[in-house]
Prior knowledge:
disordered N terminus, binds benzoic acid, 14 helices, D-Maltodextrin-Binding Protein, domain 2
Amino acid sequence: xxxxxxxxxxxxxxxxxxxxxxxxxxxxxxxxxxxxxxxxxxxxxxxxxxxxxxxxxxxxxxxxxxxxxxxxxxxxxxxxxxxxxxxxxxxxxxxxxxxxxxxxxxxxxxxxxxxxxxxxxxxxxxxxxxxxxxxxxxxxxxxxxxxxxxxxxxxxxxxxxxxxxxxxxxxxxxxxxxxxxxxxxxxxxxxxxxxxxxxxxxxxxxxxxxxxxxxxxxxxxxxxxxxxxxxxxxxxxxxxxxxxxxxxxxxxxxxxxxxxxxxxxxxxxxxxxxxxxxxxxxxxxxxxxxxxxxxxxxxxxxxxxxxxxxxxxxxxxxxxxxxxxxxxxxxxxxxxx
Length: 337
Ligand code: BEZ
């Protein structure tokens, strides 16, 4: 009998020890030690250092350092230091750069399924778009980069898209007629603005300020973040906070390098990117009102345009792009309410 009591006690202690271990790894991200390999990665992106994507890159660096016990370090190259997005993607694909946060807009010109993210008014708000990150269809869109030697890891959101105008208060889509309007080089974005009657001018970010200042363009598709960081309030009087499209960066890595890592190290990469992307969206969502006030304080007239006025153009977009790709169709079927 005494023997059984002893045995029972040992089982009880083992169960308690196992439960305690399970609880602590649930509540606190223990730094996984991985394989022991050391890495110094390069990460490139297009935005200035006060933009959310750069902050997300810094968060990623910090998370990698912490979770790998210092084995994984990152050198960040912001503000197009390594060239245009086309250059950066080429460098990531060839392996001379390891990571990039590249606009999904640019990626839509290399991998058409990314067009799905530019379905106008597909999401109620930033949080709803962020929830879409975890869906099968969003992950399958990332998977279309495999054939380019790129591992699509996740999406990092900045604020939604708005419309800025140099000196005309555009109150309805028809007011866009004939405006020279800067749009990121991306086929679905260009098409959307063409459907509104604007003449889309395909200009990369670094050329936009001078173009609107000198009157080469009458307005631009932008986010509030870059409107502040690039001081567009100095050269555009009107800001229509339409939030008509979301603005994800695709967090990507050279696929060969990723594939060669141990499973434990892959997990560190995946979890660190996820932490950075979560940080980015939570921080950004809380800044919306502050950003609008900042722009008003800087003299820009901030206003809204009724979403219902865009309904015919939304329909046109879906009818054009839905049939072009099964992933775009699945995306629209999943998120259009
Ligand atoms: C743009 O091309 O409009 C853009 C690119 C990156 C971040 C923000 C805006």
